[in-house]
Amino acid sequence: MRNNKIKHSILGTVGDALIWIFLIGTAALILMPLLFMFTSSIMPSKDIFKMPYPWITSEFKWQNYWTAIRGPDGDFMYLRNIFNSFFVSSVVSFTTVILSALTGYGLAKFPFKGRTVVFLLIMSTMMIPFEAIMIPMYMVVINMGLQDTYPGLILPFLTNAFGIFMMRQYLITFPDEILDAARIDGASEPKIFWRVILPNAGPAIATLAILTFRTQWDNLLWPLLIAQTDKMKTIPLYITRFTAETHTDEGAMMAIAAIASIPMFILFFSLSKYFVSGASLTSGSKG
Amino acid sequence: MARHRKFGMEHNKAKWGIIFILPSLIFFAVFSFYPIINAFYLSFHRKDLLSLRAPKFIGFDNYTYLFGSSNFWNSVLSTTFFTLGTFIPLLVFSLILAAFIMSRKRFQKFFQMAFYSPAVLSSVVAAVIWLLVFDPRGLGNQMLNTLFNSPGVDHKWLATDTMLRLSTIIVYFWKYIGYFTIIFIAGISSIPKQLHEAAYIDGANIWQGFWRVTFPLLKPTVLLVSVMSMIQCLKTFSTQYLFTVSGTPSKPINVITLNIYNTAIRDHRIGRASAMSVLLFIIMLFFTGMQIKGSKSDDVTYM
Fold first, then answer.
1. Which of A29, B2, B69, B70 falls 20 to 30 Å from A282 in CA-CA distance?
2. Can you list the domains of chain B with their CATH numbers?
3. CA distance A57 to B243
4. Is residue A285 over pLDDT 60?
5. CB pairs A-B closer than 8 Å
């Protein structure tokens, strides 16, 4: 009996150690490409393909970053494209938060005939994948004369069913007494939304805003259809163009990649809580 | 009087409810319902992207063309390879990683952050990094050759059909593994601790605790992750697009979305692209339906 227990605990320790090794090994493997991106972004191309890979270069080539920003044509188009990504992602986050909160609030707190039908109708759009409707959507936007414009990049993403669902779930538990108190005080409904609901939905808003910002920052397919001229392109398109045109300058390519990732990493490390809640929320919506 | 006022207030509420919902409803009408109806409509027509001529009705011609086209079946095959090759490993490894992380008393947060960090990158950046890793002179060959002690062998990551497919799978797996790990961690954390404690008091070890307690209760999350990852894989575009743009062969990774894009934008065949979109939509609807059905019948209650 006692022997058995010792055997058990040895097995337990070995298993424990194996789990640690597995976790640390996997973490190292997953982090390696990231480390590769940052280290090679300051290397001359010949170092990037040296065997074995020198994780710290012998000659720092900060010039890669200058080449990245200056661009192959020397017109600093990357800066403009970075601005476009920031602008489009920010506007989309803003409208998604406002419209989702507004609609979610309407669905959560205002009974009217047909509300359930409207709710289900909105939820049903979650089943329509963007990839399946992008061509008709593209034709809608072209017919509006919005090709190669900011509104063209932004319009199809003003809000989404997931955001509405999330805000509705969040606001449904909001105490009615507070709303009624505000009404008795004579506040109008829009004012209640703006002054009472929005300030009290902080965590939900932050989660939704970050989720939306990231999705837009990552968006390739839609800008590919809409942005025709270089000055309307976003970061993913700039990277695509650079890869297609000058894929011999690997150092500069990694510098471009690093520049595109740094804002996201800053967001991630300062607001990781909301990244994680965003990920686990996407699962909660189905439960 | 009081009753009248109450009725007035309810009426007022209904009015404001509709006002608050209306903007989104108009939005969905224009950017969801109209396009999906139009996709069905166009799939029965011939329409050139650039010509102003009205679409010409051609019945099921677009569909019969697709079902007889080797290019389309190649896309179906590429998408199937990619989806099966990606979502199954994603499911298995994210579950293992989540269970391992949750079994640790320390560094839980660190591992979550580390595994999740590639998900922060945009897909294009992920693809660019891996393009260099898969270069004949790159890290990919170096690491495999160190592992198998075979110096100087080129594994042709971006050249042969199988390796190219595997490469896109690796990129995707790498980017999303942390995301699904976090979903599983959320699922595991929602299982009451007492259940485990009870099992351990009854003499179960960690292994039994996982298989007999955690895993059965995690079934809804397993179902959710498998359908979610499957649907995401069916929609994959960025990695394949960037790889082909950088000059890899396109045939083995010409997934359906890439084919839709090229058919519409490069070949200007809107009708045919719409028919493909409709087929993709139906396939995804099937899987979503499966998930909804499964999550209803599989509800788990924690007593």
1. A29
2. 80-252 (1.10.3720.10)
3. 27
4. no
5. 276
B257 contacts in A (CB within 8 Å)?
A: 131, 221
pLDDT computed for residue B300 by the predictor: 52
The nearest alpha carbon in chain B to A268 belongs to B120
The whole-angstrom separation of Cα B30 and Cα A88 is: 20
- B116 inside 8 A of chain A by CB: yes
- What CATH code would you report for A68-284? 1.10.3720.10
The per-residue pLDDT for range A15-59, each reduced to its tens digit, is: 788 999 999 999 999 999 999 999 999 988 888 888 788 888 778
Question: Taking a C-beta distance cutoff of 8 angstroms, is the pair B58, B45 a contact?
Answer: yes
Give the Å distances, CA to CA, from B27 to A152, A160, A226: 14, 9, 19
For residue B169, the tally of other CB atoms under 10 A from its CB is 23
Cross-chain residue pair B205–A48, CB shorter than 8 Å:
no
Q: Min CA distance, A56 vs chain B (Å)?
A: 14
Whether the complex's predicted ipTM surpasses the cut of 0.85: yes
Best mutation target among A131, A217, A275 (most B Cβ atoms within 10 Å) is A131
Q: CA nearest B244: which of A224, A60, A8? A: A224
What is the bridge-based pairing of β-strands B45-46 and B56-57? antiparallel
Enter the pTM of the model.
0.89
Structural element, H or E, at residue B57: strand B56-57
How do the domains of chain A map onto residue ranges? 2-66, 68-284
Q: Residue A166 and residue A250: Cα distance in Å, rounded?
A: 42
- Helix, strand or coil for residue B48? strand
In this structure, the number of other CB atoms found within 10 A of the CB of residue B57 comes to 11
Interface test with B, best of A29, A30, A96, A119 (most B CBs within 10 A): A30
